[in-house]
Amino acid sequence: MPELPEVEVVRRGLEPHVLGRTVTGLELLDARIIRRQHGGEDRLRDGLLGARIDAVARRGKFLWLRLSEPDGGDRGDALVAHLGMSGQLRLRGVLPEPGDPAAVPAPSEGPASDPLRHRRLTLTLDDGARLDMIDQRLFGGIWTSPLDEAADGRPAGRGNPDALLPRDARDIARDLLDPAADLPGIARAIRARRAPVKSLLLSQGIVSGIGNIYADEGLWQARTRYDTPGSLLSQRRALAILRGTRDVMERALEVGGTSFDALYVNVDGRSGYFARSLAVYGRDGEPCPRCGKLIARAVHQGRSSHFCPGCQRIPTPAAAPAEARRRKDHRESDG
Predict the structure, then answer these.
(1) What are the pLDDT digits (tens) for 264-273?
(2) Which listed residue (193, 303, 313, 326) is catalytic?
């Protein structure tokens, strides 16, 4: 936590308030939040002060702000943020107060947590707004990174105007909400591996942005157990997993993401409520919404997995030849 939908909610929350603004101040309260910054605080300060924010972009769980000179000239770098387990980006000074008739309702709920608790860094913008980086556990971070061109030459991520992306994110695969994502290619990459399908979904080098919650939900959608080897999947089944996971993420976006505690909130401090709609994650001992059998929880490779023993069954070794034949039969589904 947070996973791709939650990071996209943050990106969308930031975009209308920081796009076109100029960074006028930097307050660093805890240097650990910039531990990935080459050159430390001085380099960060030099790279940010006076820079204009020209785009708010995301690939997987990586967020970045494209920076330019005040006259519009490209600086060739971006401010990258990764929220880790408990990071938050929170805005102050620009959002309407609760009850203000000018406020635009957001599909989220829950009390706003203290916006200054665990504050590690603050950027001040030219309109007086402040952007806080808050991180209780300090697994996240913020830093500047040079820009490189994406290998496929297509727009590098959501909200990005071109194929340039931060060098530190160039090995991160495209995510399932990226219009440029090649789902048949991702499915083939999963099927080429013998590792359990859940671990392959969590591999940021094959497909990015999926964490424990949405992996469990997507696998349930496709009636596939978490420990099914990728090599036993047909192309049709692998695509069903990817499309099911994408569908769950899109539905989560509509309601502000998934919040179980105050560690994930939107830029205005409110929580998402997709947790109400989860089918299996965190629901062990409850009936499966599809078949009624009790949801189970298993620990595999150090991670908890939630699944339905009735709906989600691992293919038997004897079924492998049949799976191989189905792969051949369904090659046309690649398109």
Answers:
(1) 455 555 544 3
(2) 303
